[in-house]
Amino acid sequence: MLRIERLKVIGLTIMPTFLVACGGLGGADGDSSVSRIVGKAIENQVFVEGGEFELGDVGRPDGSAYVTLVDHSRPVIEVKVDSYSISRYETTWGQMRVYYEASGRLSQYEESPFKQRYVTSPTDDLLSPYFRNKPARVPNYGEAEGYCAWLAQETGLPFALPTEAQWEYAARSRGRKVAYATDSGEVQEDPYLRRPTEYVDPSIPPSGNTLMHSSLKFERRPVGSYPPNPLGLYDMTGNVAEWTQDWFQEDYYEQAPRDNPSGPEKPANPDRPEKTVRDWAGHGDRMGGAGTVFMRAGEPVSASGTGFRCVVNHPEPIN
Hints:
Helix content: 10-25%
Strand content: 5-15%
Shape: globular
C-alpha cells in the first residue's frame, strides 16, 4: 500500500486553458468539504493490474468490425499498460462544485453562458438534473484536467485524466474482448430517456444495465445506478461520455508505441486542438458501433458537455 500524505497548498495560481494550481478553501466548512471530496476520491480508486491487450476494435466473432461509422479504432494493436488505479465512478456535480470553489474558478464563469448549465450549484433534489450525485458535464477540457490536477496537489498522489489506452483497458476489464463495459458485456438498455422530454420522470427507478439515450436530453442517472463491469467500474458505457488526456488523431493506432501509448505529442490541427473522447454511448450516439467501448473520436478542447473520471498513475494500490 502507498502511504498517502495530503499536501497543504497556500495561494492560488491560474494557468490558462489546461493547468490549474489550486489552494484550499478558507474556513472550517470549506476545509471539511475539500477533505471529504479528497477522501472519497482516494477511496473510490479501483486498482487495475497492468498487462498486455489488443487496443482497438477486436471485431465480432464472425470477424466483422463493431464500429462501422468510422475506422479510427483500427488497426488493432497489441499494447502494454502499467498498473494504475481508476475511479469507480464518473465525477459528479457535487465534486466539481467543491473544486470550482476551492480553486477560485467560479469567478471565471460569472459572465459566461456556461455558468447556469455546466458550472451550476448542485442540489439535494433527487429529481433534479443537477442532483449532486449525477455525473457532471464540464464546460471544457481544461476543467476536467484541472480537477484531476487539483486532486494531485491536495493528496500528493499522481492523479490525472486517463490515457485512452488506460480507459479502454479498464472499460474492458483488463482487455477482455467485450463490446460494452457492463456487467455482462452486453446491453440491456434502460428505456428511461426514450419517452418524450415532458414525460421523463426521474422518480422511475433504473432498469437494465446501462443508460444509452438521446443526446438531446440533459437528464442522467446518479452515478452507480447500474451494475458495474467485472472490474467494479460504473458507467463506462452510457450516462456521460468521458474525456481522456490524449490528443486526437484519426490514424494514431497506425503509429502508436506499444508500451503505454499516451496519444500524439501535439494536436493534429493546432488551430482546432481536439482531445480523444471515449464512451460515445454517453453522448447518446450508438449507430454504427458508436456505443461500444471501441469507439474513439475527437472533441475540441473548448467543447462543453462531456464528463470524466481520474486515474492515479502508481504501480501499487493506494487504498
